[in-house]
């Protein structure tokens, strides 16, 4: 939905407040509002389904969700049957998040009071948000995101960012019958995906929502009475469970690939320890962990040794079978993290913050432990020279695909007809370059390689899809 004037926005807001004011008032009903009320969202064959069940069906039935099976998580999609893709990662995040949400709803009396629509947790909402949280990521992982952002910024002053692209898909690019608002999800699910509640087009913002979609998100936030800059509990829970999955599941992949060697010479290597420390120091997102209050070197070393010793115990318990041991150590760490999720009052914002809790206070030690394991995955996997070769190859491919499509005069001749038709309908609002970024970012790894090969590979040299992990 795109509102063109302040008058339109006021009318729309009053319409929603009237349409959804019921016996219990707005507090409850605003959670199931859909931006496109005229689309017949509450009508049709699915009347017996809850609104969140409809959201779930729309998400898993969408092409964007299916394409996650062909997008890299850490290792290139197609590198092997074992390694995770964006799809399996999203499913695993949703499973963790749903179970944690169930536990919190069952055990926390604050949630039962339902004091504010943004201070509620519904397992169905958190599950849907987890399934949707990575839809906007382009092919080739974070390298693809980095390259598209650089190209758009250098040439047109436009930003590209995976979380913002989520909303391009959910609110515009995806199509469903009877709606011109993408998948037209409920307000609860849209705001649960919105872990960065800002307009990314504001100066200095690195993450957020593009202005075109921020308009609708901002209206929902105003309707809910959300404090500026604060995410809903459901969005925060989804984000923390994403970190839990990353810090455990990607380690399992690294162990399976032999990049994380389960022996003392690896875990006690001073170069590994100092590399982790450098990554932590360079990451501005973990300032709240107040690393200056601890001896970072000692803690990193202690966590690594504890992880190895736990592995040695589990490995022995499972008869020296590495596959079972990998699954077991992953499960134990997921359980350890998930069991301590809760929320506290945040004095900085006057809102609630989802985090790890111990004895009623934030468990900074466990937060730091998770960060160390996340950085272990980063240092050993992302910085591996074969993964860096994949990144370099993907940078070349995305750059040359961009050069091929970016000019309208030639680009419009080689995009699929439905994309061209969409551009013609929307060109008063979207520049051609944004639609090109939409098209490239929607590609799977394999499809990007296929299009690249069609443009640039000779008939005798079309094996770009060969896995780099099969080479020295």
How is this structure best summarized?
The chain is mainly alpha-helical.
CATH T-level topology of the largest domain: Hypothetical protein af1432
CATH-scheme architecture of the largest domain: Orthogonal Bundle
- Helix/sheet category: mainly alpha
Distance between the termini: 51 Å
Total DSSP helices = 22
The CATH class of the largest domain? Mainly Alpha
Shape: globular
Radius of gyration: 23 Å
Q: Order of strands across the widest beta sheet?
A: 1-2-3
Query: Number of DSSP strands?
Result: 3
* CATH homologous superfamily identity of the largest domain: Hypothetical protein af1432
Q: Percent range for helical residues?
A: 55-70%
Overall structural domain count: 2
Biggest sheet architecture: 3 strands, antiparallel
Overall mean pLDDT score? 87
Low-confidence stretches: 1-10, 17-28, 38-46, 464-472
Beta fraction: under 5%
The SSE string, one letter per element, is HHHHHHHHHHHHHHHHEEEHHHHHH
């Amino acid at each position: 939905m795109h509102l063109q004037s302040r008058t339109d926005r006021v009318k729309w807001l009053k319409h929603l407040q009237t349409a959804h004011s019921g016996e219990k008032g707005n507090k409850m009903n605003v959670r199931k509002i859909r931006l496109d009320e005229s689309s017949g969202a509450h009508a049709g064959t699915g009347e017996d389904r809850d609104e969140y069940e409809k959201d779930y069906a729309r998400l898993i039935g969408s092409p964007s969700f299916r394409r996650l099976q062909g997008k890299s998580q850490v290792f290139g999609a197609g590198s092997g049957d074992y390694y995770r893709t964006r799809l399996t990662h999203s499913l695993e995040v949703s499973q963790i998040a749903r179970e944690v949400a169930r536990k919190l709803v069952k055990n926390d009396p604050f949630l039962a009071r339902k004091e504010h629509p943004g201070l509620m947790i519904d397992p169905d909402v958190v599950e849907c948000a987890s399934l949707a949280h990575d839809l906007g990521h382009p092919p080739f992982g974070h390298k693809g995101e980095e390259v598209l952002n650089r190209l758009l910024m250098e040439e047109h002053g436009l930003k590209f960012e995976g979380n913002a692209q989520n909303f391009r898909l959910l609110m515009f690019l995806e199509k469903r019958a009877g709606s011109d608002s993408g998948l037209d999800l409920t307000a609860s699910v849209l705001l649960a995906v919105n872990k960065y509640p800002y307009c990314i087009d504001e100066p200095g913002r690195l993450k957020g929502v593009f202005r075109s979609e921020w308009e609708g998100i901002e209206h929902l936030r105003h309707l809910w009475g959300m404090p500026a800059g604060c995410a809903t509990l459901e969005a925060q829970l989804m984000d923390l469970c994403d970190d839990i999955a990353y810090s455990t599941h990607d380690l399992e992949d690294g162990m399976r690939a032999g990049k994380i060697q389960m022996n003392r010479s690896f875990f006690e290597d001073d170069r590994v320890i100092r590399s982790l420390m450098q990554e932590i120091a360079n990451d501005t997102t973990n300032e709240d962990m107040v690393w200056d209050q601890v001896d970072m070197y000692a803690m990193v070393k202690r966590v690594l040794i504890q992880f190895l010793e736990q592995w040695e115990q589990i490995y022995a318990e499972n008869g020296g079978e590495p596959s079972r041991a990998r699954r077991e150590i992953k499960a134990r760490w997921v359980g350890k993290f998930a069991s301590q999720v809760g929320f506290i009052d945040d004095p900085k914002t006057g809102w609630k913050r989802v985090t790890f809790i111990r004895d009623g206070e934030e468990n900074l030690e466990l937060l730091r432990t998770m960060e160390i394991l996340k950085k272990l995955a980063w240092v050993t996997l992302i910085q591996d020279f074969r993964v860096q070769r994949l990144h370099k190859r993907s940078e070349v491919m995305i750059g040359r695909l961009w050069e091929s499509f970016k000019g309208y005069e030639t680009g419009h001749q080689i995009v699929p007809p439905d994309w061209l038709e969409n551009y013609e309908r929307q060109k008063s609002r979207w520049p051609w370059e944004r639609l090109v970024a939409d098209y490239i970012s929607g590609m799977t790894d394999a499809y990007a390689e296929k299009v690249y090969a069609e443009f640039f590979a000779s008939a005798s040299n079309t094996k770009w899809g060969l896995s780099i992990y099969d080479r020295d």
